[in-house]
Amino acid sequence: MGVLNVTPDSFSDGGRWASTDAAVRHALDLQTEGADLIDVGGESTRPGAGRVSPQVEQDRVLPVLTELHRLGIRTSIDTLNAGTAELAAAAGVDIINDVSGGLADPGMADVVARTGLPYIAMHWRAHAGSMDSLATYDDVVATVVAELADRVAVLEAAGVKRSQLILDPGLGFSKDAEQNWRVFARLDAFDPLGLPVMVGVSRKRFLAGVLPDNAAIVDRDLPTAILSVLAAQAGAWAVRVHDVAGTRTALNVLARVDSARIGS
What we know:
The protein has 264 residues and is an alpha/beta fold. Helices cover 41% and strands 11% of the residues. The protein contains eight helices and eight strands, in the order βαβαβαβαβαβαβαβα. The chain has a six-stranded parallel sheet, covered by helices on one side. Helix 7 runs parallel beside helix 8. It is globular. The two termini are 31 Å apart. The model has no long low-confidence stretch (mean pLDDT 94).
């Protein structure tokens, strides 16, 4: 999944693709670099980010989604808002990606059920302005698995089919650096839930710990690509990244190694 932030304030590329023309050009570049899906977002969820109205979000993303659909490019809508998800579905989006797992907007489950679209439900505890204060766990891996299992039960009870669901462990959300590493290291703990898992680590804060103190945000692309390979080896359904070219190359190397192993 290639990240396309149609926002002025995203933490790594805010404002670069804020116009429809620039966003569409970047989506085409991401596809050329090897993205299978373009994840379009109109509201930043970086730590400390403020909320924007659904109308502002929709004004940002709907023209982009409409044009990408016309061009035959597969997209997902990165949104917390049921109204935005519903309009995105009408514009031809392929997947709804909700970092709140339906907790931010009680109407989201109904939209997902009615549209029948695949739905990525992330582990989430609070909006960006307060999420860091909720990074408290006795056992972070067991708790994240349990809380996602609860979300699955609620969504199914609301009419969402299990076959629509994809889970996201929520790396970088309501978790400190060590907790993020622990969750990533135990992606296998999500296997008993029996659902696909999407992993999003791209350029996130906890990656700074493996880099020099003066490293730029884009320097996190190399550890992102390495973790993307490890996620693929753990059976991840998809990885969500800013640097599609580098990650695609890393995954191509893994595919060649796996092919050689099978052929030996």
